[in-house]
């Protein structure tokens, strides 16, 4: 795997750690809300009659009030998670587009004019568009409604059964984990999609400069890799052709869910007729000697 993919994996690893912290903190805050209702929970537990327990819960909308308090913490965690994921996707896009531009120019020994903007400029350019980063938003009414319904069911059943705060917290944690797991899945899936999208854009730019370039699928070969993706290792396609699994690139948003969710593959540029292409270009030996950091300092636009 190349430097950009390694960097992307590191970003994802750190992102998952931060998401774990967010939802761990949300759990403790939600549990604190339960503890503040200790008296109500104890009174319900002491009542043997199921009807009386139900009446205690319904009195002054106690259950709904408790649920709303807990949902505030869950929703806040989701909002923070979405922002964190979106911010990192911009970094991932930038790094992969820039690095593939660097590797193409280095292979050609020529400057073909890749214009790489810094992350802040990329973010500004995307602000006014319905960009693909919005697809990862988990903060919508349907998700909130689903989480609320599950939380109400779990806590309602637990309270009616007279369970302790410890057992109720376990029920609440199960519901919270739905949002937590969703955020991890989204982070992993979107990381691959944004990486693939950035690489496709760099390939398309090279093609616009009359550079013959194809795309080559690179699989992450371990026990977690799909069989269909193992078979794709080394498969080469024209830029406008789909790979044999129906995707234009790893993580393609238009692909089937079973082909993209939690995919960890990537792709690289396959330069065609390199000798002939280089013969038609202005060779710049400085490019071949540059590290990615040096190339970035000279050609990344502020």
Please specify the SSE layout and strand pairing:
Layout: H1 3-35, H2 38-46, H3 50-58, H4 62-108, E1 116-117, H5 119-127, H6 141-160, H7 165-208, E2 213-218, H8 227-230, E3 236-237, H9 257-260, E4 266-271, H10 274-279, H11 285-289, H12 292-299, E5 300-301
Task: Explain how this protein is built.
The protein is mainly alpha-helical and 302 residues long. The chain has one domain (3-301). The chain contains 12 helices and 5 strands. It has helices at 3-35, 38-46, 50-58, 62-108, 119-127, 141-160, 165-208, 227-230, 257-260, 274-279, 285-289, 292-299, and strands at residues 116-117, 213-218, 236-237, 266-271, 300-301. The chain has a 3-stranded antiparallel sheet. The protein has a two-stranded parallel sheet with strand order 1-5. Helix 1 runs antiparallel to helix 4 and helix 4 crosses helix 6. The longest helix is centred in the first third of the chain and has 47 residues, at 62-108. The radius of gyration is 25 Å and the shape is elongated. It starts with a helix and ends with a strand.
Alpha carbon gap, first and last residue: 29 Å
Query: What is the total tally of β strands?
Result: 5
Task: Decide which structural class fits the backbone.
Answer: mainly alpha
Strand content: 5-15%
Q: What would the principal axes of the Cα set say about the shape?
A: elongated
Reading the helices and strands in chain order gives HHHHEHHHEHEHEHHHE
- Provide the residue-averaged pLDDT: 86
Summarize the structure.
The protein is mainly alpha-helical and 302 residues long. The protein has twelve helices and five strands. It is 66% helix and 6% strand.
